[in-house]
Amino acid sequence: MHKSMADYILGIESSCDDTSAAVIADGVLLSNVIASQQVHKDFGGVVPELASRAHEKNIVPVVSEALKRAGISARELTAIAFTRGPGLLGSLLVGTSFAKALSLSLDIPLVMVNHLQGHVLAGFIRQPDVPVREPSFPYLCLLVSGGNSQIVRVNGPLSYEILGQTIDDAVGEAFDKCSKMLGLGYPGGPVIDRLARQGNPERFHFAKPNIPGLDYSFSGVKTSLLYFVRDQMAQDPDFLEKNKEDLCASFQKTLIDVLMGKLIRAAKETRIREITIGGGVSANSGLRERIVAEGEKRHWNTYLPEFKFTTDNAAMIAIAGWFQYKAGIRTPLDVAPVSRLADF
To answer: 40 pLDDT exceeds 60?
Structure first.
């Protein structure tokens, strides 16, 4: 790749509590820098005001570091991709404002990216000296995170169809709320995953929702766990401490059963065998194992994102922005961030 001929895209991600910047050259990742915020642990969840302040502090050093690791100067950038939403408005505002200012000062185009589009296209991030294995279109993406749970039919880099989604909590939210309920800490997903590995997933059974079509519901599973633990602790105050591994394993298995049941149905209905997962919950070891096992059984081609691309990161924003840039899509400077996006 001749350096001066490459399209360099800077990606900026600031939708929640991670400030991230990445540089890709013609689809190949050169750098991906993430500054995580530790301040929220004490509060058991992300505090929007603290998050936006931390982004303000982190964004300049994070972008500078991403350019430095990529070995280019800001003047060599071709375009800037940034997360417009969904996410926390204050956090998005920091990333959007920075992207606009930089685009204006360098006189280069701006490309807005839907955060969910980034997760859906994370499988196309190419890395130097890493063999490429990309899904072919159309494929199904099980998009699971703290804010979203959807089955998306991906017909092309810029063509999506939501086949099913949660009607209440996202699955990541269910993990976090369960963890809080059991006094295990925040963020809940990794804690429950770790404990679940030491527990028996068949020990306890929780109510599974019966929702028509391909939509999900997770609030009933959560309520089922809450009442069950409350009733057991009335008889034995130490019940939670003695059984937390089995509780986590059983709860996690129930959530995965719900997710996989709908994904299997979607694959049958669409006759699509190219299956990917994306979003923060795609780091869950139980879900990863199950999707591989189901794939072998059902002759799917399954694609699991690397762990570093499961959580919020700018590499996925940069790759989504690159696809849009190549398609001739540009964003005007008067664009405003939005906390919710109707569709993508």
So the answer is: no
Provide the 8-state DSSP code for 308: G
Buried/exposed code over 304-313 (b: 16+ C-beta within 10 A; e: otherwise): bbeeebbbbb
Alpha-carbon span 273 to 292, nearest angstrom: 12
Give the pLDDT score at 2: 44
Could you tell me which of 11, 245, 235 has the C-alpha nearest to residue 122? Answer: 11
- The answer to whether the Cα torsion of 27, 31, 35, 36 is positive or negative is positive
User: What is the rounded distance in angstroms from the CA atom of residue 5 to the CA atom of residue 26?
Assistant: 9
Task: Verify cis geometry, omega within 30 degrees of 0, for the bond prior to 187.
Answer: yes
CA neighbor of 276 nearest in space, from 197, 266, 127: 266
Domains of the chain: 3-131+309-326 (3.30.420.40), 139-306 (3.30.420.40)
A 10 A CB-CB count for 21 gives 35
For 204-264, the DSSP string reads: --------STT-B--HHHHHHHHHHHHHHHHH-TTHHHHHHHHHHHHHHHHHHHHHHHHHH
Closest Cα to residue 270, out of 139, 158, 156?
Answer: 139
The span from the CA of 246 to the CA of 257, in Å, is 16
Q: Give 203-232 pLDDT, tens digit per residue.
A: 999 999 889 999 999 989 999 999 999 999
Residue of 87, 218, 203 whose CA lies nearest to 149: 218
Average pLDDT over all residues of the chain: 92
Please compute Rg for the chain using Cα positions.
21
Q: Which of the two residues, 42 and 66, has the higher pLDDT score?
A: 66
* Residue 69: its H or E element: helix 48-70
Residues 148-171: pLDDT tens digits? 899 999 999 999 999 999 999 999
Query: In angstroms, how far is the first alpha carbon of the chain from the final one?
Result: 32
Q: In the structure, what pLDDT confidence band is assigned to residue 45 with cuts at 50, 70 and 90?
A: low
